[in-house]
């Protein structure tokens, strides 16, 4: 083993051969915008391998002098340039300006401090201390490259994800091996031969991974790989800074121990600490869990939930909002994550499928249906999850192996699907658009979207209930109008039937003929009035000054053919009211006929007209069978509740009281079984 370790030329030669093949492959295949950066990595790898193969006499120790330091920095600089180019993007829109300037400042400090240290070494002062500084600076550069590799791995979009992850893995392997060797050298003053061999193999392996990436995608283009939305770099770079600080803090202690012992201890410490950190940085699942744990327990919340809740309620309920509620509900959810547009799918009470019922900031209006038994909808309802389609494509295991819904293929910009759940039932869902699949949800946004979805669902359910209630009220008004019209038609038909029945007996009687013509004329006028009411939807007719005595006599005259004949007692001959005379006459006639039907032929029905201060009192009295109080209270004025079987519609009493109340009066009934009935109508008089 010792003899094998001594043949340094073989190890560095193999590594140089890998980068030479990589360079030849780039020259033969050509490439896009990244060719120069990759070619620089390949050339630097060849130079690095050749330099160490020639200058390193033995692999037992690793210490940096000025020339070796700049060779190492040059090699790491080419890797940094490749990672930076991918993270920066074609128009520098994917990396925050602060990060870009910080990276340039970092490299300026590295090169400046390296040049200053080299100058002092050249002057022959502090060469031993300079080695320690070289190790620290090199370790900082290696950790920074490792952090950028993890950042690139996190920002990988859906397209060509394996290719970009390969580059991130190559950068991580290269920078990790450099950090391992330089970290041990920082603590112990030099690096042992075993870790040096591991570093050489890792550098060669990184070159092979890059070669694999080139074979997968020979025509490179920045816009394929770069995330259009910049993400936070601090979670990747901060751990690297912590590692550097910890190693620097341990350096004074390790320098007091034997070098061989420190090398073993430092290597073990670096592996035990560095491997978990590397796994955490490159594992999306673990890093997400840690991020949520830290954010929930140690960091202040990103959102001001009071402000967010007030904004949501204001968007949904503000009376100044002129936009319909379904469209406002989309905007209320979209503004939480800054989505530019969205769709609302809703299921009616009598439907089993969801349809697009509203849009916001988009001309797309899907015409397909989404069935309620879709696996994605069941998953969202049961788990109450926000469906991130990009995350679903990246990691289906997070969604229990769920497949991307087929209908999202017709909505290419659809990224987030927010369920609208109320009473554990999925009433609908909101589809939010995003310009980039690199958008990632945090736990705060997920919780806020889930809670807001429930609130929006409650508002929309109430909105839908109000709409259905308004429709029901419209139908009720129509049914009420129809019932009134049918009741009047029934009376007209009864009048015409009686006339036809008596025509055979009195067809030669001129008086009967004149009376029949008058009856027909009156019926035609009333039917024309009914037609006008049907067209206008208004059952009220024109009001006029009406003498109550004349109107009551007209009602009595239309009921004289029934027994017992009504008797009229007028104690207020000049009492007048403002009313629709024809409808009033019909209502009173109906009440008189009800009294006649409840009274035997030898009984009595009396209509009395009196005055009580400023009101006219009309009393319709009979000595018939009477009614119990429970019937009067619960059934008499209930529409469509009739005691006459198929002969009655159960609308007359309801219509009579409604008409009197609408005219500003009141109608009351006094009755006892076996003691007759008194209907009291109170009407406001005209002066």
Commentary on this structure:
The chain is an alpha+beta fold. The chain folds into three domains: 2-297; 305-458, GAF domain (Beta-Lactamase, 2-Layer Sandwich); 541-684, Histidine kinase-like ATPase, C-terminal domain (Heat Shock Protein 90, 2-Layer Sandwich), CATH 3.30.565.10. It is 61% helix and 11% strand. It has 22 helices and 13 strands. The strands form three sheets. The protein has a six-stranded antiparallel beta sheet with strand order 3-2-1-6-5-4. The protein has a five-stranded mixed beta sheet with strand order 8-10-11-13-12. It has a two-stranded antiparallel sheet with strand order 7-9. The radius of gyration is 46 Å and the shape is rod-shaped. The chain starts with a helix and ends with a strand. The relative contact order is 0.05. Residues 1-6 and 221-231 have low confidence and may be disordered.
């Amino acid at each position: 083993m010792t003899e094998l370790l001594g043949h340094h030329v073989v190890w560095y030669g193999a590594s140089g051969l890998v980068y030479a093949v990589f360079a030849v492959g780039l020259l033969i295949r050509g490439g896009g915008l990244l060719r120069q950066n990759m070619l620089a990595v390949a050339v630097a790898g060849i130079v690095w391998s050749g330099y160490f193969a020639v200058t390193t006499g033995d692999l037992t120790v690793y210490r940096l002098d000025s020339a070796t330091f700049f060779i190492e920095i040059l090699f790491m600089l080419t890797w940094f340039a490749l990672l930076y180019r991918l993270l920066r993007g074609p128009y520098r829109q994917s990396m925050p300006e602060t990060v870009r300037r910080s990276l340039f400042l970092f490299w300026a400090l590295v090169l400046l401090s390296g040049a200053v240290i080299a100058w002092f070494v050249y002057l022959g002062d502090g060469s031993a201390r300079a080695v320690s500084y070289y190790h620290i600076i090199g370790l900082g550069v290696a950790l920074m490259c490792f952090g950028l590799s993890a950042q690139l791995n996190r920002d990988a979009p859906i397209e060509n994800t394996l290719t970009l992850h390969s580059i991130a893995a190559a950068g991580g392997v290269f920078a990790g091996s450099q950090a391992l060797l330089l970290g041990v050298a920082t603590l112990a003053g030099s690096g042992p031969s075993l870790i040096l061999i591991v570093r050489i193999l890792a550098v060669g392996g990184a070159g092979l991974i890059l070669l694999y990436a080139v074979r997968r995608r020979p025509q490179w283009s920045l816009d394929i790989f770069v995330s259009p939305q910049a993400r936070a770099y601090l979670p990747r770079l901060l751990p690297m800074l912590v590692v550097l600080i910890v190693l620097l803090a341990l350096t004074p202690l390790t320098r007091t121990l034997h070098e061989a012992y420190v090398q073993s201890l430092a290597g073990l410490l670096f592996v035990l600490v560095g491997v978990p950190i590397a796994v955490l940085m490159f594992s999306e699942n673990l890093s997400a869990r840690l991020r949520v744990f830290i954010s929930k327990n140690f960091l202040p919340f990103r959102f001001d939930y009071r402000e967010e809740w007030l904004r949501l309620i204001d968007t949904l309920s503000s009376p100044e909002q002129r936009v319909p509620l379904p469209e406002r509900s989309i905007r209320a959810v979209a503004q939480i994550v800054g989505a530019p547009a969205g769709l609302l799918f809703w299921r009616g009470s009598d439907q089993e499928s969801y349809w697009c019922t509203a849009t916001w900031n988009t001309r797309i209006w899907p015409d397909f249906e989404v069935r309620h038994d879709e696996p994605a909808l069941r998953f969202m309802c049961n788990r109450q999850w926000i469906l991130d389609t990009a995350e679903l494509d990246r990691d289906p295991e997070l969604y229990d192996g769920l497949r991307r819904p087929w209908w999202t293929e017709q909505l290419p910009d659809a990224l987030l699907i927010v369920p609208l759940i109320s009473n554990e039932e999925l009433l609908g869902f909101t589809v939010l658009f995003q310009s980039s699949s690199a958008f990632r949800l945090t736990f705060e946004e997920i919780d806020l979207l889930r809670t807001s979805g429930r609130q929006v669902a409650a508002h929309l359910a109430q909105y839908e209930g109000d709409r259905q209630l308004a429709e029901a009220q419209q139908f009720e008004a129509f049914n009420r109008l129809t019932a009134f019209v049918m009741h009047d038609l029934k009376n007209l038909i009864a009048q015409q039937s009686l006339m036809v029945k008596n025509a055979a007996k009195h067809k030669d009687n001129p008086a009967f003929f004149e009376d029949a013509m008058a009856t027909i004329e009156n019926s035609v006028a009333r039917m024309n009035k009914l037609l006008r009411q049907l067209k206008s939807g208004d059952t009220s007719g024109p009001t006029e000054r009406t003498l109550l005595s004349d109107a009551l006599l007209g009602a009595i005259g239309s009921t004289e053919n029934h027994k017992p004949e009504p008797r009229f007692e007028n104690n207020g001959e000049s009492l007048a009211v403002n009313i629709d005379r024809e409808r009033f006459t019909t209502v009173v006639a109906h009440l008189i006929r009800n009294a006649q039907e409840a009274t035997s032929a030898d009984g009595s029905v009396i209509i009395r007209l009196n005055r009580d201060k400023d009101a006219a009192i009309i009393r319709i009295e009979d000595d018939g069978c009477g009614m119990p109080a429970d019937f009067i209270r619960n059934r008499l004025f209930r529409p469509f509740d009739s005691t006459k079987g198929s002969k009655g519609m159960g609308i007359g009493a309801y219509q009579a009281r409604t008409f009197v109340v609408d005219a500003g009066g009141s109608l009351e009934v006094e009755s006892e079984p076996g003691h007759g009935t008194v209907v009291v109508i109170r009407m406001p008089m005209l002066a």
